[in-house]
Amino acid sequence: MADAVNRVIGIDIGGTSVKAAVVARDGAVLDEIRLDTDASRGRDWVLSRVSEAVEGLSTIGNNDIGALGIATAGRVNVESGEVVYATDNLPGWQGTHLVTWARENLALRAVADNDANAALLGEAWQGAGRGKRRLIMLTLGTGVGGAYMEDGLLCRGAHWSGGDWGHSILFPRGLPCNCGKKGCAEQYVSGSALLRRAREYTGIQYRSGVEIMKEAAHSHPKALQVLDDYTADLAVLLVNISVTLDPEAIIVGGGVADAGEVWWPLLEKHLQQLGVQTEVSRALLGNRAGIIGAGRLAFELVDS
Ligand SMILES: [Zn+2]
């Protein structure tokens, strides 16, 4: 009988960065690396970054690494390991067979999933969702990701897009979305949408949400108004999720949530006004949720 696997690698591939970590069976991150994706250079380049990240961890040696868990932007067929849909955040990514690639190029058993699914697994295992089995996750970053867990199991849907609330319609006939529809939630509650709203209100091109939060923290009235409107729309999305699926908790993560000190009380006010009963909490693992969740996927693979 083979020795029990105690270490795996979790990797998180996004439009901005590739993150990788050695994850222990108790969820501890033992070694970690982050590289810029430079996604515009195309698929083969991004895959070479993945190799580089994994090799950057190899001080530990691949011999005692049991498997690789891969979280990526886009929709992933978890049975085949293929990216079945990806936006231009990762040009040419659609159609990539990540599991086959990992076996042939890294000589590792692998499993791949969508990054929001991995983030929810990570938060359920080590973060804000510990001890709960019916959970929703929303990630507010460049786009809006979502994931849904029932009785401890991810609900990935018939077309691998389960939990994709970023493309549920918040405002019929609203702003055009890169998915082809109009009025998607992503156009109103993503980090990019927050920057666009701030530019419209103030005429200032902010570089990050953190800049807006800083002004709001100093009671800048226009910055506060931007965040009030932003959280009002986010609350509508959350109430729709709450009434349709009745989870134990909805976890809000992603870059916008990491900088949430100022706007979280505004969101709570709007949730109260809408009578939302579901617990809504901020993610605890920050930008490590994806790599930890990917590690969890790898352990599930070796234990299956
Ligand atoms: Zn859309």
Question: Which properties best describe this structure?
Answer:
five-stranded mixed beta sheet, Nucleotidyltransferase, domain 5, binds zinc ion, 38% helix, 2 domains, 304 residues, globular, alpha/beta
Walk me through what this model shows.
With 304 residues, the protein is α/β, with parallel strands linked by helices. The protein folds into 2 domains: 2-119 and 288-303, 2-Layer Sandwich (Nucleotidyltransferase, domain 5); 132-283, ATPase, nucleotide binding domain (Nucleotidyltransferase, domain 5, 2-Layer Sandwich), CATH 3.30.420.40. 38% of the residues lie in helices and 21% in strands. It is built from 10 helices and 12 strands. It has helices at 43-56, 98-106, 115-126, 186-189, 191-202, 209-217, 221-245, 255-258, 264-273, 289-303, and strands spanning 7-13, 17-24, 29-36, 68-72, 75-77, 82-85, 110-114, 135-140, 144-150, 153-154, 249-253, 279-282. The strands form 3 sheets. The protein has a 5-stranded mixed beta sheet. A 5-stranded mixed beta sheet has the order 10-9-8-11-12, with helices on both faces. A hairpin with a 4-residue loop joins strand 5 and strand 6. Helix 5 packs antiparallel against helix 7 (221-245), helix 6 (209-217) crosses helix 7 and helix 7 (221-245) crosses helix 9 (264-273). The protein is globular. The two termini are 14 Å apart. The model has no long low-confidence stretch (mean pLDDT 93). The protein binds zinc ion. The site of zinc ion (ZN) has 6 residues, from loops.
